[in-house]
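job 3f2a | input accepted
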Amino acid sequence: MPSHDDRHLFEMLTLEGAQAGLSWETILNKRAAYRRAFERFDPKKVARWGRADIARALRDAGIVRNRLKIESTVSNARAFLDIQEKHGSFDRWLWGFVDGKPLQSTRRELRDIPPRTELSDQLSKELKREGFRFVGSTIVYAYMQAVGLVNDHVVGCFRRSAVRRERSPK
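job 3f2a | predicted structure (170 res):
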């Protein structure tokens, strides 16, 4: 479903980056621990993290204890706040890539859903330019699906029409 809550958008970007190289199920099973470890995904709090906070997270068995992924969450929080400051909200900036409306695919089979698109390539490049890490095109496309920028529910899926009806706030 389309998401317009900045904290949720930060959470999903963090979880998609954490999932790199792992199964999505692994990350979903650790989601509650991620929320505890990363201050309920409050980007202002995470952006203030220092070495001691990163060391604490590295000892947390409830999350994926990968130093690069943890450090990227901190630097991504800072980049996230920069975008909020420049554009008023991350939501406004992000949804500008799709003119404020979810892209509607017409894929008939799961195998027809690509791992990346030209738009995910573009968004990935912009996120990197803004200072984000763990935002390759494949991760970004999964993120776009997770936060509703693209409706990739296949034709015939019971969720497709509900997502299609969901409208972005003006």
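job 3f2a | The domain at 6-165 is CATH 1.10.340.30 (Endonuclease III; domain 1).
job 3f2a | closed
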